[in-house]
Amino acid sequence: MSNGQQPKWDPRSKEVLEDQINAYDGIRHRYQVAFSDYLQWSLFKHKDVVQVLNDHETFSNAVSSHLSVPNGVDPPEHTRYRKMIETYFDSQQMDVFEPVCRRIAVSLVNRLPLRGEVEFMSKIAEDFALQIQCASWDGRRSCTNPCASGPARMGTRPWREIGKPWLR
Question: Which of 60, 93, 116, 132 is the most exposed place for a label (fewest CB within 10 A)?
């Protein structure tokens, strides 16, 4: 327990993990705000989340000694970082990057079994995030995911072959 608070819920409990929608609906009906040892304070009402997002005087994003840009900093620093980062996500940049992302997604889907169930996060989402990051950084054909059992292979051409405008 932290801060002398008594946990109201456990987001890692079997009940929550097995049926997250019903579990979150249930906690939302019992509490607007609930404490857990794992997440600390959780907000369950939209109006409360909006208030936190818009009230930078009361609530802060700076919660770690490790800088996380831009989400781990408050205005006005957040605004400066965001302006710099957004240049990499304009329409022209995304038009160039979209086919790369699509090829990566298709490659990941094509290696799935034709029948049966698949755990989406471990079989698609984690590799997709890793591969598009590698492609956006330097176009590597493979990246090693230290959390996985081997290299995550990309079925794409390197960025430098298709044009990465910000590296020219």
Answer: 116
Q: Which domain holds residue 15?
A: 1-59
User: At residue 116, what is the residue type?
Assistant: G
User: Is 163 found in the same domain as 94?
Assistant: yes
C-alpha 48/C-alpha 43 separation (Å) is 7
What DSSP element (H or E) covers 43?
A: strand 40-43
Tokens of 112: 């799935």
Peptide bond into 99 cis (omega under 30): no
**Together in a domain, 16 and 55:** yes
- In one-letter notation, the amino acid at residue 132 is I
In a domain, 53, yes or no: yes
Tell me if 66 is assigned to some domain: no
44-91 tens-digit pLDDT: 999 999 999 889 889 888 878 888 888 888 888 888 998 988 888 899
Q: Which two tokens stand for residue 139?
A: 């176009």
106-141 per-position pLDDT tens digit:
999 999 999 999 888 888 999 999 999 888 876 555
